[in-house]
Amino acid sequence: MSEALYDLSFTIAAFIFNVVLCVMVTVRGTEDKQKNLTFRNFTYILLVGNIVTCCDVMFRRAPVVFIPYSIRLVFYVLSFLSNVMLTYFFAIYAESFFETTKRRKFFSVINEILLVGLFALALISAIITIPNIGEDKYSYLLPTIPKYILAYFAEIYYLLYAMVVFVVNSKDLNRRVCITAACAFTVTIGTIVYEVFNPSEVYFNYFGAILGLYIFYMGVETPDYKNLMATMKELEMARLKADEANRSKSDFLANMSHEIRTPINAVIGMNEMILRETGDEKIADYSRNIESAGRSLLSIINDILDLSKIEAGKMELTEAPYQFSSLINDIAVMISVKAKEKNLSFNVNVNESLPDGLCGDEIRIRQIIINVLNNAVKYTEHGSVDLSVDYERTGDKCIVIVKVSDTGIGIKPEDMHKVFEKFDRLDMEHNKTIEGTGLGLAIVKRLLAMMNGSIEVESKYGKGSTFFLRIPQKIQADEAIGDYRKKFSSASADGGGYKELFHAPDAEILVVDDTLINLTVVRALLKKTKIKIDTATSAAEALIKTTEKKYDTILLDNRMPGMDGAEALPIMRTQDGGLNKETPIVCLTADAVSGARERYMAEGFTDYLTKPIESAALERMLLQYLPKDKTNG
Ligand code: ADP
Q1: Which of 375, 392, 503, 518 is the most exposed place for a label (fewest CB within 10 A)?
Q2: The pairing of beta strand 607-610 with beta strand 585-589
Q3: What is the CATH number of domain 2-221?
Q4: 410: CA distance to ligand 1 center in Å?
Q5: Is the pTM of this model over 0.90?
Q6: Mutate which of 407, 425, 461 for ligand 1 pocket (most atoms within 8 A of beta carbon)
Q7: Which CATH class is domain 237-311?
């Protein structure tokens, strides 16, 4: 192979391109981080290599008087080394696209050691050659094996390494970088492989390399692209931070709501005692106001709790069979009372062939329909509220179609898109006297989405609104609902004051709660039943009492400092000398989330009661679990 007569035209062209690229990366692409610096250094190294190679070839052509052999030898060796450096930089550049891992670090060190070895090899070969300098024209040529190692093995090794780094990690890259890298490597490696297998007089190396760098520059190293990527990264970080903040907010709200329910429990409970015991109509009136304010506070807390549970992904729906007639009857009774208070007519129309036995999350469906109906009453001053229920059946499933229309204030067209947004309350100049948080319909929409259902609204501002709900349910029993009112005609009759369900002077129960006032509330609520009540303010105290006396029922608070109810329960069931291993144990909890019941039952509780404790619910539950011979109506 003739070493001296290489054609330099491609190398000189590469040199010009290289200078242009160096200027561009220096002037435009400097603001960036590590990877961009690697690319910039890469272009500089390429330029130095290019110059060295040009000098080498030109010096070999020059007369010896001008360029002595020693200088030629130096440039000859440097030209090999610059080729090695060039491909070594390809490897480094490829690595700069990925995070450094232990494995990658290991290979980087191998590459560095290899580079040092190649430099040493070049130096030793050059030293061996020195004694022959000047003997003939090509006497400074390196021995064949080191020369081939430097010229081909090293170059191909580093390029293949770079390519493998890209291919193995390509899943971490976006499409654009992948395509750019593929094009750049095809061009660069293509020219080098061509030169290895097709030795010619033309020197392609640098031309291929600079084309590869241009492709990288255009593809991924342009400042615009880098800015875009940096902005996208910042946006992603901001999104993650916002998600995190939203999660903490939801957790905080859920926790706070839980904490707030406990004192409201006390307020509503004690107020109930005032209502029952006062003979003074004025005080009873004050007390009724406290009750109504307490209940609306509770419903706000429940909304916040629900929404934060939904947003934190912790809301679970529980499907169970239920009677639709019972559900719609309860709702109709409740809403008709409210409609009556505002002198509105309330009409209910239920398709009589609708299957009565459905399966779904009854509590949530109740909540959804009540919410929409409450709004209809709330935002209507004159006229009527209509509820109609129909269904579409497919096999053993159906979609319950609920339509709620009112002749109320309606919604402005420009506000329609905000109706289901959380915290959005519309038309505030007209609605400012109407209580609300703007959470109700947001919860309804999310709950329906969880059930694969939907809600839509049509409205004429000033004329009224109609909400259309589609609620998918499973059909449990085919029996048609018929006239739901007939089934429950007695249920709505009783609207009078409090009357205890039973008397149980011989029954004994234990109530465990760390909040003293809650114990007082339970005592007060059950006063007229004459039931005997022992109390304990901690699980530890309760566990002593359960070895001293056999109770007929135990009411056990779940959330207590130290040992909580769920921890105390299994001990009560198994403790040495325990007298209450079989006693019904009812969990008292402020956790009113759907699915809670199943969870408590699974933990071994006999049943559960939510706080604030409703007097009627408490009595019903006790009646169920107290021995029949100890209770009498
Ligand atoms: P709020 O607690 O304010 O009632 P909702 O989420 O239930 O919150 O409703 C959001 C808003 O949609 C309300 O503030 C009200 O402006 C409007 N809206 C809801 N239902 C009706 C209705 N039937 N008629 C008129 N406006 C309604």
Answers
A1: 392
A2: parallel
A3: 1.20.1070
A4: 9
A5: no
A6: 425
A7: mainly alpha
